[in-house]
Design goal:
Two copies of one chain form a homodimer. With 206 residues, the first copy, chain A, is mainly alpha-helical. Chain A has ten helices and no strands. Chain A folds into two domains: 2-55, Arc Repressor Mutant, subunit A (Orthogonal Bundle); 62-203, Orthogonal Bundle (Tetracycline Repressor, domain 2), CATH 1.10.357.10. Chain A binds chain B through residues 35, 37-38, 118, 121-122, 158, 162, 165-166, 168-170, 172-174, 177, 189, 192-193, 195-196, 199-200, 202-206, and chain B through 35, 37-38, 118, 121-122, 158, 162, 165-166, 168-170, 172-174, 177, 189, 192-193, 195-196, 199-200, 202-206. The first copy, chain A, binds a DNA duplex (30 and 30 nucleotides) through α1 and α4.
DNA sequence: TTAGCTGCCGATCGTTCGTTCGGCTCCTGC
DNA sequence: GCAGGAGCCGAACGAACGATCGGCAGCTAA
């Protein structure tokens, strides 16, 4: 009876989304609002309207929920953004496109961004390393393009790895506080920041 | 006897620093390493070699320890950095000096930087507001100088508040991961980042 | 029909946490 | 010499936490 009711609500309300996705979605929101440590399994269970013990049917522990959120986001992020940095593209175009995507994608998944950024270090060392590897992959790919731009004479920076970090810090800072008024505001700001990064890479007098 | 021994060690080892400072110092390091939630009063007490209950002789609660760390740092930070942004200084010089100080000061108190940045939101709303007000004061002061630079024609940015945020995010990103090899490395990087910010403010094609 | 799996539940375990309290020992001011 | 505060202690309290376990309903395949 209860189950039938839940299924009925489910198919109407949150259309086919299964329990695992419901848990990940609610947990991410709670982790963002209260922090990983302060959000309890009881809180998460309450959000998806099941009992705390039932959570362990889908996830072996609280940490696995956090890891699923962080790793899922970072994997999707790299799939979307890293593709912009292909080697057969002019360095300027590639970086401009990557920064733009970086901002737009991060805005679309703002909760995951904040959780991954803030709560990652609550994970065990090994799972942290998995996610850090994905982040490093992005950073290194960006640094390679910067390096290439320097060799081609379109960029001029004192240190390409430092420049990549500076650009990423600037953009990662933005996506944490920026809440666009509408889609046009988002697109405009993404383009402006892409401009800023290109300007930085061209005008960093060493 | 025990107390006399402690005093003897104290005056030799950590020269006149009293219990309150010892607690703040140890707590900050623990909050940085384990996070505010995961670092317990028992951990802090163990670090300064007293019993947990004795902590409440100096601080009314754990949150007051965190607030003392964050507020103390941000107050000192503003005293040091904000002074560089005086109105009778050329915008370029003022910002260059402020960014340089920002980086050098943050490096000197790296632990406080990370704790203030990451754990601030564990504070009650009112205490958060106190610290946020200090941060906003710095950000606004920087935006004012950027605005002045734009009117004087030395800067060209699409939005002076957005530009100030971009510059601050870049620098705040740096101070969180940057560990200089030595004093020369610190000074060099601080100067380079000051250059980068000036370059950004001059070359942000709107 | 029935064995077995999935999803869920109530009850509860053991641990850790922040905090409180009464009392002890020094040191200082009167 | 004595009152009183500062500093510290051991013991313990109540609450919250992550996680476990046995069992129950409903669905599915043999």
């Amino acid at each position: 009876m209860r189950l039938q009711f839940q299924v009925a609500v489910q198919t109407q309300d949150i259309a086919g989304r299964d329990r695992v996705d419901q848990v990940l979605h609610s947990a991410a929101r709670l982790f963002r609002e209260k922090g990983y440590g302060a959000a309890s399994m009881r809180d998460i269970a309450g959000e998806v309207d099941i009992r705390p013990s039932s959570l362990y049917h889908h996830f072996p522990s609280k940490q696995h929920i956090l890891f699923a959120i962080c790793n899922g986001f970072q994997r999707d992020f790299n799939l979307d953004v890293l593709a912009q940095l292909s080697p057969d593209r002019a360095p300027e175009d590639a970086i401009r496109a990557a920064i733009h995507r970086h901002i737009v994608f991060s805005n679309r998944r703002w909760t995951d961004v904040l959780v991954t950024w803030r709560e990652r270090r609550s994970l065990p060392r090994e799972q942290q390393a998995t996610i850090n590897a994905l982040r490093r992959q992005y950073r290194d790919a960006l640094a390679v393009v910067v390096e290439r731009g320097c060799r081609e004479g379109v960029f001029e920076v004192p240190d390409s790895k430092l420049a990549a970090m500076a650009a990423l810090d600037m953009v990662n800072g933005l996506v944490q506080w920026f809440k666009p008024r509408d889609e046009r505001d988002l697109q405009l700001t993404a383009t402006r920041y892409a401009d800023a990064v290109i300007g930085l890479l061209r005008g960093w007098e060493g």
